[in-house]
Amino acid sequence: xxxxxxxxxxxxxxxxxxxxxxxxxxxxxxxxxxxxxxxxxxxxxxxxxxxxxxxxxxxxxxxxxxxxxxxxxxxxxxxxxxxxxxxxxxxxxx
Length: 94
Description:
The protein is mainly alpha-helical. It contains three helices and no strands.
């Protein structure tokens, strides 16, 4: 069975259909302006979420809630276990 990639559970024909409707409603000359506006909005949203993440992390470090050494050690151990499991399952698949 061939799996085609989908975007948010929407297939290729649905995307083409939606784009056709957008072109008919807004016209081809307005599409660049709409895309630019959407891009700016997405960028502002991404910047806002990054600012929030930065502020939460900063306040957590100031209050000694986050211990970066502990999290690094946990990530290293998890990566070791993951590698061991991949080695084990790789030998089983063969």
